[in-house]
């Protein structure tokens, strides 16, 4: 058995569904595309994308000693239709990857074990492991390694697992035999592009993060721009639309990984209950999941927007307390939501009570735009 074969076998034993190798040479055109994307400002609030661009552009720019990159993938598919929750406007939609244990913790531990195995097999060599938090372009590397290809939605697509893959990488100074790259199998399909609720794809294979619901509900630090709020719907953390409609998902399967099993208690949570969570309750409910990293203020912002999109006036009572929230994000989103749920007379009465106490300019602007429609 070759070293590469032994590595793949050990990876499978550790719970990885895919394992492939590429050289540490920069994927062709990846750095150029990154520079163009940053030049267009498509990264939005994600300043770290620009700050780490030089190291991100090529594996050897991050670690000059790198000679090979081992790319790993774990299936996180689930039974049923991930988009079914969108037809239940009184419930919060959480992206499929986030309704389980934080994948960073699961994958990093396994990467360290696999890296240790590699060093033991060779009697030396250096290794570095990465899971999403370092300046590594995992998806282009995964494509040249042969795990899948970057679809028109810019995410990785696998012929075996569709769009449901979590990625990790091991850099090593050892020279390993590379695998063949995967070809693009999207063809003329544009299902993912057409499914995007905010039209975040200016062209196939190009994403404007500033319009992406996943970015707006997770990474964006400020108030969600008004032009996108209705399109957010009841999505309170992430968006699975472009992933879910990919035809290659017909080959996907539910993950068998017990450590990444779905938490059923995070499926279809009532928005009323989520709006009532204080910071301690938020942390307790989402402990160990990616949602916790969002923080309570942005979470309440998202929940308020979702309630405003519910078109259910009976839910206004759950949003009204947020007018007194300590965060301007929550207060501003609550103003927007209540303007869509309450009769104008009731809304004006609330404005009369809340505005004199409001000292944040952004929240006062929300009130102004709702009480004076011409300012919207």
UniProtKB/TrEMBL annotation:
<keyword id="KW-0846">Cobalamin</keyword>
<comment type="pathway">
    <text>tRNA modification; tRNA-queuosine biosynthesis.</text>
</comment>
<dbReference type="InterPro" id="IPR017896">
    <property type="entry name" value="4Fe4S_Fe-S-bd"/>
</dbReference>
<feature type="binding site">
    <location>
        <position position="156"/>
    </location>
    <ligand>
        <name>cob(II)alamin</name>
    </ligand>
</feature>
<dbReference type="InterPro" id="IPR004453">
    <property type="entry name" value="QueG"/>
</dbReference>
<feature type="binding site">
    <location>
        <position position="196"/>
    </location>
    <ligand>
        <name>[4Fe-4S] cluster 2</name>
    </ligand>
</feature>
<comment type="subunit">
    <text>Monomer.</text>
</comment>
<dbReference type="GO" id="GO:0031419">
    <property type="term" value="F:cobalamin binding"/>
</dbReference>
<feature type="binding site">
    <location>
        <position position="212"/>
    </location>
    <ligand>
        <name>[4Fe-4S] cluster 2</name>
    </ligand>
</feature>
<feature type="binding site">
    <location>
        <begin position="239"/>
        <end position="240"/>
    </location>
    <ligand>
        <name>cob(II)alamin</name>
    </ligand>
</feature>
<dbReference type="InterPro" id="IPR013542">
    <property type="entry name" value="QueG_DUF1730"/>
</dbReference>
<keyword id="KW-0819">tRNA processing</keyword>
<keyword id="KW-0671">Queuosine biosynthesis</keyword>
<feature type="active site" description="Proton donor">
    <location>
        <position position="132"/>
    </location>
</feature>
<feature type="binding site">
    <location>
        <position position="56"/>
    </location>
    <ligand>
        <name>cob(II)alamin</name>
    </ligand>
</feature>
<dbReference type="Pfam" id="PF13484">
    <property type="entry name" value="Fer4_16"/>
</dbReference>
<dbReference type="Pfam" id="PF08331">
    <property type="entry name" value="QueG_DUF1730"/>
</dbReference>
<feature type="domain" description="4Fe-4S ferredoxin-type">
    <location>
        <begin position="176"/>
        <end position="206"/>
    </location>
</feature>
<feature type="binding site">
    <location>
        <position position="167"/>
    </location>
    <ligand>
        <name>cob(II)alamin</name>
    </ligand>
</feature>
<keyword id="KW-0560">Oxidoreductase</keyword>
<keyword id="KW-0963">Cytoplasm</keyword>
<keyword id="KW-0004">4Fe-4S</keyword>
<dbReference type="InterPro" id="IPR016024">
    <property type="entry name" value="ARM-type_fold"/>
</dbReference>
<dbReference type="GO" id="GO:0052693">
    <property type="term" value="F:epoxyqueuosine reductase activity"/>
</dbReference>
<dbReference type="GO" id="GO:0008616">
    <property type="term" value="P:tRNA queuosine(34) biosynthetic process"/>
</dbReference>
<feature type="binding site">
    <location>
        <position position="239"/>
    </location>
    <ligand>
        <name>[4Fe-4S] cluster 2</name>
    </ligand>
</feature>
<dbReference type="GO" id="GO:0005737">
    <property type="term" value="C:cytoplasm"/>
</dbReference>
<dbReference type="GO" id="GO:0046872">
    <property type="term" value="F:metal ion binding"/>
</dbReference>
<feature type="binding site">
    <location>
        <position position="132"/>
    </location>
    <ligand>
        <name>cob(II)alamin</name>
    </ligand>
</feature>
<keyword id="KW-0408">Iron</keyword>
<keyword id="KW-0170">Cobalt</keyword>
<feature type="binding site">
    <location>
        <position position="186"/>
    </location>
    <ligand>
        <name>[4Fe-4S] cluster 1</name>
    </ligand>
</feature>
<feature type="region of interest" description="Disordered">
    <location>
        <begin position="356"/>
        <end position="376"/>
    </location>
</feature>
<comment type="similarity">
    <text>Belongs to the QueG family.</text>
</comment>
<protein>
    <recommendedName>
        <fullName>Epoxyqueuosine reductase</fullName>
        <ecNumber>1.17.99.6</ecNumber>
    </recommendedName>
</protein>
<feature type="binding site">
    <location>
        <position position="221"/>
    </location>
    <ligand>
        <name>tRNA</name>
    </ligand>
</feature>
<dbReference type="InterPro" id="IPR017900">
    <property type="entry name" value="4Fe4S_Fe_S_CS"/>
</dbReference>
<feature type="binding site">
    <location>
        <position position="246"/>
    </location>
    <ligand>
        <name>[4Fe-4S] cluster 1</name>
    </ligand>
</feature>
<dbReference type="GO" id="GO:0051539">
    <property type="term" value="F:4 iron, 4 sulfur cluster binding"/>
</dbReference>
<feature type="binding site">
    <location>
        <position position="192"/>
    </location>
    <ligand>
        <name>[4Fe-4S] cluster 1</name>
    </ligand>
</feature>
<keyword id="KW-0479">Metal-binding</keyword>
<comment type="function">
    <text>Catalyzes the conversion of epoxyqueuosine (oQ) to queuosine (Q), which is a hypermodified base found in the wobble positions of tRNA(Asp), tRNA(Asn), tRNA(His) and tRNA(Tyr).</text>
</comment>
């Amino acid at each position: 058995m070759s070293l590469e074969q032994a590595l793949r076998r050990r990876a499978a034993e550790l719970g990885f569904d895919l394992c492939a190798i590429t050289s540490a040479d920069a994927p062709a055109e990846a750095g150029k595309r990154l520079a163009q994307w940053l030049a267009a400002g498509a990264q939005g609030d994600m300043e770290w994308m620009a700050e780490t661009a030089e190291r991100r552009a090529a594996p050897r720019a991050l670690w000059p000693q790198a000679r090979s990159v081992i790319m790993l993938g774990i299936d996180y598919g689930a039974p049923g239709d991930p988009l079914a929750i969108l037809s239940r406007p009184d419930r919060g939609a959480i992206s499929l990857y986030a309704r389980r244990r934080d994948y960073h913790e699961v994958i990093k531990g396994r990467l360290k074990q696999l890296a240790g195995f590699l060093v033991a097999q060779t009697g030396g060599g250096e290794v570095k492991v990465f899971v999403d938090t370092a300046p590594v372009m995992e998806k282009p590397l995964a494509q040249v390694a042969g795990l899948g290809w970057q679809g028109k939605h810019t995410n990785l697509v696998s012929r075996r697992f569709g769009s449901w893959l979590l990625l990790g990488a091991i850099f090593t100074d050892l020279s390993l035999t590379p695998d063949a790259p995967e070809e693009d199998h999207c063809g003329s399909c544009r299902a993912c592009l057409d499914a995007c609720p905010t039209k975040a794809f200016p062209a196939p294979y190009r994403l404007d993060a500033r319009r992406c619901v996943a970015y707006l509900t997770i990474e964006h630090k400020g108030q969600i721009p008004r032009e996108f709020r209705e399109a957010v719907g009841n999505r309170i953390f992430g968006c699975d639309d472009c992933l879910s409609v990919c035809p290659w998902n017909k080959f996907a399967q539910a993950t068998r990984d017990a450590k990444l099993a779905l938490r059923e208690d995070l499926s279809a949570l009532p928005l009323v209950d989520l709006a009532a969570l204080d910071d301690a309750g938020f942390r307790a409910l989402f402990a160990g999941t990616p949602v916790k990293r969002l923080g309570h203020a942005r979470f309440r912002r998202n929940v308020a927007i979702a309630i405003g999109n519910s078109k259910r006036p009976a839910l206004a009572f759950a949003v009204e307390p947020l007018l007194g929230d300590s965060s301007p994000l929550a207060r501003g989103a609550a103003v927007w939501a209540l303007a869509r749920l309450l009769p104008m007379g009731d809304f004006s009465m609330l404005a009369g009570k809340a505005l004199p106490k409001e000292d944040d300019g952004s929240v006062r602007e929300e009130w102004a735009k709702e009480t004076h429609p011409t300012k919207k």
